[in-house]
Amino acid sequence: MEYLQQGLALLVVFGLLGTALWFVRARQGPNLRIRGERKMQVIERVSLTPQHTLCLVKVGERLVMIGTAPSSCQLIQTVEDHQ
Which stretches of the chain score pLDDT less than 70? Predict the structure, then answer.
């Protein structure tokens, strides 16, 4: 009898977790992507020194050039319309 109660309690907990997961996925906003098209993509990366890199990143329809160093990351240039 005790094992039956524990098993039923475990099933109820799993059911509640499944329902919560379904609810979160159903109510997620358009910017929260689990599957679908990527919003950000690294187009090219050039290593300037072993610790410094220049990256060209596509964010939506915008191209962004970013310089990275061990302790920082800096926006170099943004291009709105590119072909």
Answer: 28-37, 81-83
Contacts of 48 (CB under 8 A, 6+ apart): 54
Q: Are 49 and 55 in contact (CB under 8 A)?
A: no
pLDDT at residue 31 in the model = 52
7 and 28 co-located in one domain: yes
Q: What is the pTM of this model?
A: 0.52
Which among 60, 61, 55 has a CA at the least distance from the CA of 77?
55
Q: Into how many domains does the chain fold?
A: 2
75 and 47 in one domain?
A: yes
Closest to 48 measured CA to CA, from 64, 68, 65 = 68
Residue 38 has a pLDDT of: 74
Provide the 8-state DSSP code for 56: E
Residues 80 and 43 in one domain: yes
- Cα–Cα dist 31/26, whole Å: 13
